Amino acid sequence: MNFQIKPSKDSYDVIIVGSGAGGGMATKILSEAGLSVAVVEAGGDWDPAKEEDRTQLRFPWESPRRGASTQIRPFGDFDAAIGGWDMPDEPYTRKNGTQFDWFRSRMLGGRTNHWGRISLRFGPDDFKRKSIDGLGDDWPIGYDEIKPYYDKVDRLIGVFGSREGMRNEPDGNFLPPPKPRLHEMFLMKGAKKINVPIIPSRLSILTRPINKDRGVCFFCRQCNRGCQVYADFSSSTCLVKPAMKSGQVDLFTHCMVRKVTSDDSGLATGVSYVDKRDMKEYKLKGRIVVLGASACESARIMLNSKSKVHPDGMGNSSGMVGRYLHDSTGASRSGIIPELMHRKRYNEDGVGGMHIYTPWWLDNKKLDFARGYHIEFGGGMNMPSYGFGSNMDAVRKHILDEFGQPSPNGGYGEGLKRDIRAMYGSTVSMSGRGESVPQYDNYCEIDPTTVDKFGIPVLRFHYNWTDNEIKQAKHMQDTFEELLINSGAKLLGTKPGVETQYGLLAPGRIIHEVGTTRMGSNPATSVVNSNCQAHDCKNLFVADAGPFVSQADKNPTWTILALSWRTSDFIIKELNSKNL
Amino acid sequence: MNRRENLKLLFAGSLGTGLVLTACSPEEKLADLSPKIGGTPGGRVPEEVERDNSLLSGRFLTDLEMEQVKILVDIVIPKDDVSPGASEAKVPDYIEFMLKDQPGNQTAFRGGLMWLNLEAYERFSKSFIEISPSQRMELIEEIAWPDKAKTEMGTGVRFFNLLRNMTVSGFYTSEIGFKDIGYAGNIPNVWEGVPQDVMDQYGLSLDEKYQSVYLKSEDRGTIPDWDDQGNLIA
After folding, report:
1. Residue A262 belongs to what domain range?
2. Where is the Glucose-methanol-choline oxidoreductase N-terminal domain (chain A) (predicted)?
3. pTM of the entire structure?
4. For A455-471, b where at least 16 C-beta lie within 10 A, e where not — what string?
């Protein structure tokens, strides 16, 4: 059987690989400019507005596993994203006993279907870290170059927040933020005592409507399931689907790109892909190829695109493709606030995520590590889901009876039921998300002996954290304890120590992979120029987080969107002036 | 108005206010709570449908084991004056499914049931199902309290922790459990902040600085505008 989606054209103006934040934005901007676009996506189509795709507003008992995670939905059975760290058909390997965990989402919109909608701009300092602390490299562009695009992204997609005037946490065109939840007010009060700032969070969720095509948030706290009224940002609902209305876009789903094809002069001529349904290879022709497949997947495609002109892969004449791979740091801690026990019940869902957060607030010159972190907060009267109440053997002792006597751990019966009710909504958690220092020796490369199910050579990772990240995690743990104690919480679990790198998660776990095709002015030390155009192939562009020189302590999505828009504008300009 | 019509209005962006959202009748809200049979719905890939169907049609626990599980879950979560017990909330079926979905627990769980039977034979020459309720509780008391249990009861304690976790989780993610815990969400609504009486109870108040910044629910129907500096002006 031949499944091939018939191309409507012999050749497209632009072929875009991947439909996540970067690919989606490029699809929208380039198709609106009148260019013919083919979007090649490795996963299937998906639309949360369709009843058959809906997981939003479902109750746990609608899932036989009550929303527990599965191999391809590691964030739970109702999470929108399909893929995860461990996909049976798409393996990857690791080198020298090091660890990097690679998260993929194989579906229209990619990982924007899963993420927490935290939409932070990089600040002026985030582009010039080497100038500040001598580590890593500066970006070839600064905040001023990207600011107009952040502004446009804010107004196109929508983000709520508060204007704070903090130099390195630039304000945007914000929608009004929601008021804090009760446990968040406890945390705000506690943080004030120790001079840790807590401000309204900045999430791309529509507290007010932004246009006639998208609805407004109805506060179910389930953005990760995909929103049936499109009140949160995902690339599929806000960029790709609207762009397809123009008729300028052909969408190829279930198509796994294996390489960029090129001519004798080394210019890109299109892509070769495997259709996952019939396991056949097909080719698409295009004048320009934009890779937005994710930092690591785009690097993989470039490294696999070998030719006479590009013997080490396209864009890789510097040997830098795959190098400087880095992820955000992450560590967390939780506590229980006795004062919150026996809470009054009311609907506390709110938006799909925290209503408050802590931006980085200290000066690294006075600390023993480089680069900062922000803190995310969890807690409250969440919808019970798989795992609810599953720790009474360890936490029941924190529950006090009417005489102030603690309950014994474990147990059963009516007393256990009473204590679970008492405890509901009284736990809080916090997670740090920090900036790491990019390293030449942290990289992905092609594994010379392993292919995936589609016959495509896979990535092999080599990654070690350095002292900077470990000391940063230690600082997080100290801060978490101080914050919890000052908010009236009792600490849960034990404080992670040096033996676990202070609870520092393995690289890849925060799903902020960046840096593999970094930008720079020098073609010998970077892969793309400041317009995300490959130094050694002028019609090849990268629109994901690969070009990031450094990943700030901010989530990367807003910067991917702004950069992709800027790159798309550059492509249009170069086409108009016949340079492409 | 039903939920889908409600969402259509929200989608149009014209009537997304609290008034519309609270106009649903209570009956219609309850109508959505009917338990569903089958695999997880919504955007499944074929491999997921196949796996769920296969797990649902297979069987791990025997009839006798299920009988024992039913007794045990009602010991962990019995009927009280707030809600029914765990077996009425179909927790045994949930445990059966989870043992197939997460097979790593199968041996520990089955072995734990058998360990309880062996203890019952040793002490009362009958299986756990056959002994009297008071004899059962004599056994359970020795394994239900991890901090107090004797070291030689370690196996039983570990099993009972697993059983407690699965039972509590299964119970409180059922419709019966939701009513018990008082969870009030998972429905279109408007977040207006912590209710005033709750803030008063804890002596908390909103930061003055943000009073004018926070969302006002009456603005949820209008498209905003900003000035050149990014200040929200409409």
Report:
1. 1-58+67-83+102-157+223-325+528-580
2. 97-327
3. 0.95
4. ebbbbbbbbebbebbbb
